[in-house]
Every structure is written in C-alpha cells, then in structure tokens.
C-alpha cells in the first residue's frame, strides 16, 4: 500500500535563491505516490505563489523516490487547545508548558527572544534545553525537518474526527511536530508562524502532545519560526541528519491510536 513513496518538497524566496540572500517566503513537505506527484507539485506551487509574506521569485521543487525500508511510520501527536485572550497570556501558557517539560528558564527566555526577532528564518533554531544556547550554526537556514507527511488514509481518518481543525496548515504542522518529537533527543518544540495574520502557535512534546495556543504574537507581525529544544550533550550531527533526511510517514497502526481533541 505504501510502496513507491516519493518525497516532494518546495522552498520559495523573494529576491533570489535563499543561498544568494533571498528572503524566505514559503516551504512545504509532502510524501506521495508516483501518480500523485503532479497534483502535489501543483499544491506546493500554489502555496508558494499565494503567500501573505511576499511574492516568490525563486521557487524550487525537489522530488526523490524513497526506499520503503527507510520510511519510519509514527502516529500523529494528540492535539489539544489552550485558551488565551492576548499575547501576554498566550506566551505565559507556552512558557509554563515548556517549564513543566523540564526546560530551563534561560532556554525558554532565549527561545522566545529568538522567535520575537526572527523574520527571515527558513528552518528551526536548535536550542539546548538546559543552557539555552543556540546549537546549530546555520544562521537563517536553520534546520528544516524534511521528508514527512501523513499517509493518505490516516489523514482522511484524522480529518473525520477533527473536522473543525482541518486545514493544510494544521496538516503540515502536526506532521512536522510528530516527526520532531518522535526523536528521543527532542524535549519540546515551540512554534508560531511568521505569517502576518496567523497568531496561533503551539508547544509540542512526546509526553503532552500538540498543544495549540492562541495569541503567541500580535496580528500583523512578521516574526515567528520554530525552536527545537533538545537534550543536553547529544550528538547534534545525528539529530540534524534525522530531521533533514529520515523519511517519516504519519500513520495509524489501528483505530485504537485515534486520539480525541
Ligand atoms: P509556517 O508554519 O509554515 O508558517 O512556518 C513558520 C516558520 O517555521 C518558518 O518561517 C520557518 O522558520 C519554520 N519552519 C517552517 N517549516 C519548517 C520545517 N519543515 N522545519 C523546520 N522549520 C520550519
């Protein structure tokens, strides 16, 4: 059923390619079978061409065939939502969740400061969950979690039980957070979008799942991104290799894996 999967990914920038100083506008990651690739390429192209952050003049789409035995299959994180009335409350909730996962105050403070200043970041910033130090030396490129998506069947199943939440954004974010937190070296991920009008973000972890938090920034701000908080003293190279290269398919083993809101 899952044979012949391909990874298809897109990156788009304004002002030339990212590596020549272009400003990151849009990215996307999907997996699909050969006969789905044209449709997926169209979806990713549409995404890059209609983005609130700007007008891409560089768009790259890369397609690679995957070997079935290299694909890891994992369940989606369970999803839940917190309530907040404004940015102060939203960030307070995010900070207390991160603290409850064992992340130091320094690391939480640094993570939030990184996201407040990040407007051109293409991939995640990796932060030591104890010292609060940024560990990747990647500048604006950061570390992109890549080669992950839902299986078609699992997304259909999930959509049926989470109708109010269905959107391409949630689809991508849960796939990404599920891959990121499936690494035993991830303590948590913090995200809010750098899209101007999207202010809901999340904290994700393997123990507490994917927790949506409204108002992590003010409407109209273009700052945002992702922080991967990782355990102290781990092999960064292995961690980055997993994020960038290991193909991960989000799929349910059986109905018992279906988790509620
Ligand atoms: P988005 O959720 O698409 O609005 O992305 C918000 C920010 O998260 C981007 O500008 C990047 O900094 C970061 N980001 C997006 N996709 C990835 C990814 N696949 N891996 C790591 N970071 C990402």
Strand sequence of the main sheet, in spatial order? Answer: 5-10-9-8-11-6
Q: How would a textbook summarize the main sheet?
A: 6 strands, mixed
Q: Provide the structure class.
A: alpha/beta
Number of domains: 2
Number of strands: 12
Would you kindly provide a written description of the structure presented here, covering whatever features stand out?
By secondary structure, this protein is of the alpha/beta class. The protein folds into two domains: 5-69, no CATH class; 73-257, no CATH class. The chain contains six helices and twelve strands. The chain has helices at residues 37-49, 87-100, 105-117, 152-161, 168-182, 236-245; strands at residues 5-14, 23-33, 58-65, 72-74, 79-81, 125-128, 148-150, 186-192, 201-205, 209-213, 225-230, 248-250. The strands form three sheets. A six-stranded mixed beta sheet has the order 5-10-9-8-11-6, with helices on both faces. Strands 2-1-3 form a three-stranded antiparallel beta sheet, with helices on one face. The chain has a three-stranded parallel beta sheet with strand order 4-12-7. Helix 2 (87-100) packs across helix 3. The radius of gyration is 17 Å and the shape is globular. Residues 255-261 have low confidence and may be disordered. The site of adenosine monophosphate has 17 residues, from strand 2, helix 5 and strand 11. Adenosine monophosphate is lined by residues 24, 27, 29, 121-124, 144-145, 173, 176, 193-195, 224-226.
């Amino acid at each position: 059923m899952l044979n012949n999967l391909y990874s298809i990914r897109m990156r788009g920038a304004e002002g030339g390619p990212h590596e020549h100083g272009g400003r990151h506008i849009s990215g996307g990651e999907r997996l699909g079978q050969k006969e789905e690739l044209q449709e997926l390429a169209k979806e990713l192209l549409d995404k890059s061409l209609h983005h609130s952050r700007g007008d891409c003049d560089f768009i790259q789409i890369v397609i690679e065939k995957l070997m079935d035995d290299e694909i890891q299959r994992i369940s989606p994180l369970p999803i839940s939502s917190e309530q907040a009335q404004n940015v102060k409350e939203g960030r307070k909730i995010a900070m207390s969740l991160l603290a409850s996962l064992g992340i130091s105050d320094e690391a939480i403070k640094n993570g939030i400061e990184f996201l407040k200043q990040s407007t051109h970041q293409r991939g995640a910033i990796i932060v030591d969950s104890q010292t609060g130090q940024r560990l990747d030396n990647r500048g604006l490129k950061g570390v992109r979690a890549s080669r992950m998506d839902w299986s078609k069947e699992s997304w259909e199943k999930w959509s049926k039980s989470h109708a109010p939440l269905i959107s391409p954004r949630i689809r991508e974010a849960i796939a990404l957070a599920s891959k990121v937190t499936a690494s035993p070296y991830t303590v948590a991920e913090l995200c809010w979008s750098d899209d101007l009008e999207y202010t809901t973000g999340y904290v994700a972890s393997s123990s507490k799942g994917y927790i949506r938090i409204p108002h992590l920034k003010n409407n109209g701000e273009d700052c945002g991104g992702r922080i991967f908080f990782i355990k102290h003293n781990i092999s960064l190279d292995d961690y980055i290799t997993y994020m960038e290269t290991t193909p991960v398919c989000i799929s349910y083993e059986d109905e018992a894996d279906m988790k509620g809101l």
